[in-house]
Inverse folding.
């Protein structure tokens, strides 16, 4: 097991390094002069060149890359080319919105997937089960923006249950207001991602219903639903764990869109603003942080799956 963890961590470091290379050099081949964009159209060539030198854009790209990676290793993501403020501090501040939003979305999505997916499996072959399966397929195809707009109309405009825009200026200093501001955006992401996960839970639950240990539990007197929950769902949970790692990527992508839609000051909105301002240091650092989170969560899920499932511990790789 130690060897397995060491190999996965090595793969993770290599993945981070490859991601940093792709992000850095992909941004450098985009058309346009970053220094000219930041300086403005009325700037003189001397001013543009001075700005290019201050940003280090006139240095060898390999030198720029190694300096950036060395800073990342020290948890220093550099300074914004537009505001001059620390990118690390900005991301840390914005993560106070994006991280809870992602976790709450995961909670909503998992709750929807496991509850409705299990019920749909138990009602397999009946009209209610077919309706739920069709609804899940329909919702999984709905863009996040549309889902957010529909939920806003229903829960914010018509019913007036939840706020639809903004985040309290006091942040988490006002926990109730902060949490309430994230419920509707998180429900938007969780509903769409949960519909995707629901179909997988349903398939796994149907397979569990046909398994020997569930049939044995039913033969000993358990009801079909109790046997599935008590004997079958642990196996379903193990199967879903691997998929949850992939769901994190969808949740983060959804957060980028939803933060714009609901006017939340998170990392997603920071990324959109940085792209619009051609703020390369901020853009490359945000993309790297998001990529590192996705790869890191995937590695943790892989290790957790191996630790939880005893059948996998006997494998040599």
């Amino acid at each position: 097991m130690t060897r397995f963890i060491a190999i996965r961590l090595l793969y993770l470091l290599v993945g981070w390094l490859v991601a940093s290379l792709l992000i850095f050099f992909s941004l450098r081949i985009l058309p346009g002069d970053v220094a000219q964009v930041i300086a403005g159209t009325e700037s003189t060539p001397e001013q543009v060149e001075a700005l290019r030198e201050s940003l280090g854009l006139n240095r060898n790209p390999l030198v720029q890359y190694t300096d950036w990676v060395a800073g990342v290793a020290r948890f220093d993501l550099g300074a914004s080319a537009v505001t001059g403020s620390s990118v690390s501090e900005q991301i840390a501040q914005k993560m106070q919105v994006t991280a809870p939003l992602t976790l709450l979305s995961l909670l909503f999505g998992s709750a929807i997937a496991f509850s409705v997916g299990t019920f749909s499996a138990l009602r397999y072959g009946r009209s209610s089960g077919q309706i739920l399966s069709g609804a899940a397929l329909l919702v999984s195809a709905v863009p996040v923006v549309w889902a957010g707009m529909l939920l806003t109309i229903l829960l914010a405009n018509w019913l007036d249950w939840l706020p639809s825009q903004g985040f309290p200026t006091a942040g988490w200093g006002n926990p109730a207001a902060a949490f309430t501001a994230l419920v509707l955006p998180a429900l938007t992401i969780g509903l769409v991602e949960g519909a995707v996960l629901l179909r997988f839970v349903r398939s796994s639950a149907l397979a569990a219903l046909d398994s020997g240990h569930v049939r044995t539990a039913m033969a000993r007197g358990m009801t079909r639903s109790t046997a599935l929950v008590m004997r079958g769902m642990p196996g379903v949970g193990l199967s879903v764990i691997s998929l949850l790692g992939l769901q994190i990527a969808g949740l983060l992508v959804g957060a980028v869109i939803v933060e714009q839609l609901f006017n939340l000051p998170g990392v997603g909105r920071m990324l959109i603003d940085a792209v619009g301002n051609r703020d390369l240091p901020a853009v490359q650092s945000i993309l790297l942080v998001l990529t590192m989170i996705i790869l890191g969560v995937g590695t943790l899920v892989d290790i957790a799956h191996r630790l939880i499932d005893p059948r996998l511990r006997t494998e040599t790789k």
